[in-house]
């Protein structure tokens, strides 16, 4: 503790040092009983923090640390996004396994007369793609056997864009008869062939949007053309068979009224790796077992799993 004399001397020294500090900002005088110089804002905050209890400060820091890490894990870049549950039909995986088992022989009409078997495999790629599209246009509302017969007659005359455009309507009609709606299909085939020659150099478009813009080409044909002609899976090809079976098995969240509505509903939940398989699988199943009228439920492995079978 300082004596009164020492305190006086210290005060005098402090005044002298204070005057000296005003001339030399870097100087920091120290002495017993000296009044400290005002702290800057950052220094004041640091001194204030030092005055708190170390125990309380540690607890508070720990709580803040845990809270901060929790919010960071939710919003950080490495965090996994929240997964929204996707609707899927009950027992669909077992139903699919059963359908594959019933289709393992691959002996339905679609298996040897479908679009994959109607084009000339020895023709140039551009011609093959054109023949794929033409067979799809003929197949609408037509059995595979009839479509295959029409394609054989057309190929016998050399089936190319140029040969079709050089064929008069009456002759073309005789060649494709008796496909469904053959008269209107003659018109569509001629119009589409002219567009392909003018805009695509005799080839077919490589996108669904351009394909469905062609006269007489619908979504099912476009997706199948992308798969068969271009080797690209763009969506599920849904025809009347797929539409009917999907509704019977309740593979749609609610009943659908058209093949295109069914396609949208199926693509919402069916894994993409199954999209290419589902058309041929269900078409053949519909041709042999799940018939439009009087389905053969007694011979179906899905009889106990099919909602529609319970009411038949």
From TrEMBL:
InterPro entries: DNA_glycosylase (IPR011257), Endonuclease-III-like_CS2 (IPR004036), Endonuclease3_FeS-loop_motif (IPR003651), Endouclease-III_FeS-bd_BS (IPR004035), HhH-GPD_domain (IPR003265), HhH_base_excis_C (IPR023170), HhH_motif (IPR000445), NTH1 (IPR030841). Residues 31-50 have a biased composition (Basic and acidic residues). One of its GO terms (cellular component) is mitochondrion. GO terms for molecular function: 4 iron, 4 sulfur cluster binding; class I DNA-(apurinic or apyrimidinic site) endonuclease activity; damaged DNA binding; double-stranded DNA binding; metal ion binding; oxidized pyrimidine nucleobase lesion DNA N-glycosylase activity. Its EC number is 3.2.2.-, 4.2.99.18. It comes from Nomascus leucogenys (Northern white-cheeked gibbon). It catalyses: 2'-deoxyribonucleotide-(2'-deoxyribose 5'-phosphate)-2'-deoxyribonucleotide-DNA = a 3'-end 2'-deoxyribonucleotide-(2,3-dehydro-2,3-deoxyribose 5'-phosphate)-DNA + a 5'-end 5'-phospho-2'-deoxyribonucleoside-DNA + H(+). PROSITE patterns: ENDONUCLEASE_III_1, ENDONUCLEASE_III_2. Belongs to the Nth/MutY family. It is found in: Nucleus; Mitochondrion. It comes from the Eukaryota. Signal peptide: none annotated. Coiled coil: none annotated. Interacts with YBX1. Interacts with ERCC5/XPG; the interaction stimulates NTHL1 activity and NTHL1 binding to its DNA substrate. Bifunctional DNA N-glycosylase with associated apurinic/apyrimidinic (AP) lyase function that catalyzes the first step in base excision repair (BER), the primary repair pathway for the repair of oxidative DNA damage. The DNA N-glycosylase activity releases the damaged DNA base from DNA by cleaving the N-glycosidic bond, leaving an AP site. The AP lyase activity cleaves the phosphodiester bond 3' to the AP site by a beta-elimination. Primarily recognizes and repairs oxidative base damage of pyrimidines. Residues 138-288 form the HhH-GPD domain. SMART domains: ENDO3c, FES. Keywords: 4Fe-4S, DNA damage, DNA repair, Glycosidase, Hydrolase, Iron, Iron-sulfur, Lyase, Metal-binding, Mitochondrion, Nucleus, Transit peptide. Its cofactor is [4Fe-4S] cluster. Residues 1-80 are annotated as: Disordered. Gene3D superfamilies: Helix-hairpin-Helix base-excision DNA repair enzymes (C-terminal) (1.10.1670.10), Hypothetical protein, domain 2 (1.10.340.30). Residues 51-63 have a biased composition (Basic residues). This is Endonuclease III-like protein 1. The keyword Zinc does not apply.
């Amino acid at each position: 503790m300082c004596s009164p004399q020492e305190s006086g001397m210290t005060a005098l020294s402090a005044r002298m040092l204070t005057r000296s500090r005003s001339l030399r900002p870097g100087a920091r005088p120290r002495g017993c009983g000296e009044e400290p110089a005002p702290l800057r804002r950052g220094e004041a905050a640091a001194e204030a923090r030092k005055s708190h209890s170390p125990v309380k400060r540690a607890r508070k820091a720990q709580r803040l640390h845990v809270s901060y890490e929790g919010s960071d894990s939710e919003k950080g870049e490495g965090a996994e996004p929240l997964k929204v549950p996707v609707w899927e039909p009950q027992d669909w995986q077992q139903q699919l396994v059963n359908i594959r088992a019933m289709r393992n022989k691959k002996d339905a009409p679609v298996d040897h007369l479908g679009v994959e078997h109607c084009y000339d495999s020895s023709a140039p790629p551009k011609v093959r793609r054109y023949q794929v599209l033409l067979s799809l246009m003929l197949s609408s509302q037509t059995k595979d056997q009839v479509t295959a017969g029409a394609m054989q007659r057309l190929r016998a005359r050399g089936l190319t864009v140029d040969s079709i455009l050089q064929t008069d309507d009456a002759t073309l009609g005789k060649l494709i008869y008796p496909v469904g709606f053959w008269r209107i299909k003659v018109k569509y085939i001629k119009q589409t062939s002219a567009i392909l020659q003018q805009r695509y150099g005799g080839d077919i478009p490589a996108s669904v949007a351009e394909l469905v813009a062609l006269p007489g080409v619908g979504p099912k044909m476009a997706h199948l053309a992308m798969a068969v002609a271009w080797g690209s899976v763009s969506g599920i090809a849904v025809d009347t068979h797929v539409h009917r079976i999907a509704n019977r098995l309740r593979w749609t969240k609610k009943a659908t009224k058209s093949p295109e509505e069914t396609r949208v509903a199926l693509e919402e939940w069916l894994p993409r790796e199954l999209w290419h398989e589902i058309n041929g699988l269900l078409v053949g199943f519909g041709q042999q077992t799940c018939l439009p009228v009087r389905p053969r439920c007694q011979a179906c492995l899905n009889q106990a799993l099919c909602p529609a079978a319970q009411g038949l």
